[in-house]
Amino acid sequence: MNEIDAVQTSLASYSKRLDEVSADRFNELRKCSFFDPIPSEWLKPISEQTEIRTFSAKDCITREGEDMNALYVVLYGTATAYYNKKVVGTIRSGECVGEGMYFANENISRSATVVADGQVIAAEINKTGIERLRGEAVVYMDKALLLALFKKLQGANRKIEELMP
Question: Which residues form the Cyclic nucleotide-binding domain (predicted)?
Answer without folding.
Answer: 34-133
